[in-house]
Amino acid sequence: MTDYLDLAGQLMMVRLFGTELDADTDAFLRSHKIGGVCLFRQNMVDAFQLTRFTGALVDAMGPRALVALDQEGGAVVRSTWVPAPPSAMALGAANDPQLAREVGAAVARAVRALGFNWNFAPVLDLNNNPHNPVIAERSFGADPLLATGLALAWMEGSESEGVACCVKHFPGHGDTHVDSHRDLPRVDKPRAELERFEFAPFRIAAQAATPAPAVMTAHIVYPALDPVNPATMSRAILTGVLREEFGYEGVIITDGMDMHAIAHRYSAGQAAVNALVAGADMVMAIGARETQVETVHAIAQAIRDGVLPLLEVEAKLARLGKLAEAHPARAIAYVREQDDRALMARAWRAGLTALGQPQRPARGSRVRLVARADVVSDGISEAGVPAARIAEALGTLYDVELVTFADSESFDWSALPQDGRFTILASTSRRRYGPNARAGWRPDLHLALWNPYQALDFPAPALMSYGFAPPALEAAVAWLGGEIDAPGICPVPGFERG
């Protein structure tokens, strides 16, 4: 007799809520045959704890366990103590496929040593929208061929080290003004424009000699394809476009179903069933335990009632099984950590980009640093670098006076003393500046240490690092000290001045 709950559990990826596998969670994973888990920063303490945790998860879930995380690079990383990879756009600015491959391999070595076999990266979204609130530097760029070539090289490196990738967010999140974590975006473009731009990387990745092993869906409505359903729940998009038109045979997984674009419009169970009927193979049910239980029962009921045909379920399980068998979740020793740290430092430096012919203050100069006091995590990215840490780094070169602000729109730039100090603005958040700052702030140099589009908010010369990880800040200080140049070329439009 078919056990529908067992089948349903294998189609789910869940979130966990501690740093150890407690007895209740262990029983839940075993009794429902849960197929995948996704771990986040709050599940991680250090390498010893995390390796023990992932090992216990595999023991509970079995040899076909899929143990996943988001280790993209830049601001979107979960294990923060391993060598810090540059963001996608930093690699886009370097435009070196071999370097991208080496970085992808190094990321995989680090996460495999921690027991992961699936990394939700690289991002294939093309970013030509300066006001995108969630993608920005997570994209390799705006040119479909350049961005896809770098992403596939990164993916090839990851695969060489035994970690499956997952390209995202199909059919494309790059040209949105809304963050799907907050609300439901729409990309209201004609089909021909979607084909030329958004679709292009995913079509290439689906049809490559070595196709992407997995694709993550976007919680976005594309009216030219389906006027009602977000892509995650659209059979026209997931089955019609991705499976049938692109010929894609790998795994399709949803983005987190707890995101507001979905959770504020559908019940958890119905949303999961809709996504699986549309063509997804696995639902990322990362809400509370109650939501996970609701989801597994709803999927089981849909299989029992024939809403989700058994033949389709078997095909989904076969794809998931193939992915897991090709990438066993088994921690291995990390023997190249120091080499990988040197590689990441080199990669951050290769992407460093100058805008508007910035000038370096002479060593020993009196410098005023203006920066947000602290930057907390926005739930997607890790917390930005505190202002005091930037001041400490610049203090190796200059006499630094630090001025911090909590809210850029209420900060009075004109109140800064006119005392001859060279004024450096360091931007350490993703959000663009508002009208008050854009109208009145006039730094001598803008260090854009996260979202490069912030460099467009002021006419000041800028140095863009596409991220704030320690090696990114070290690269900026090395440039200020005259030790290195800034060879990168920003891979999105709008940065042509000066």
Automatic annotation (TrEMBL):
Molecular function GO terms recorded: hydrolase activity, hydrolyzing O-glycosyl compounds
Family: Belongs to the glycosyl hydrolase 3 family.
Tagged with keyword Disulfide bond: no
Family annotation (PANTHER family): BETA-HEXOSAMINIDASE-RELATED, GLYCOSIDE HYDROLASE FAMILY 3 DOMAIN PROTEIN
Protein name (Swiss-Prot/TrEMBL): Glycoside hydrolase family 3 N-terminal domain-containing protein
Domain Glycoside hydrolase family 3 N-terminal intervals: 9-320
Keywords: Glycosidase, Hydrolase
GO BP: carbohydrate metabolic process; peptidoglycan turnover
Domain of life: Bacteria
Gene3D superfamilies registered for this protein in UniProt: Glycoside hydrolase, family 3, N-terminal domain (3.20.20.300)
Coiled-coil parts of chain: none
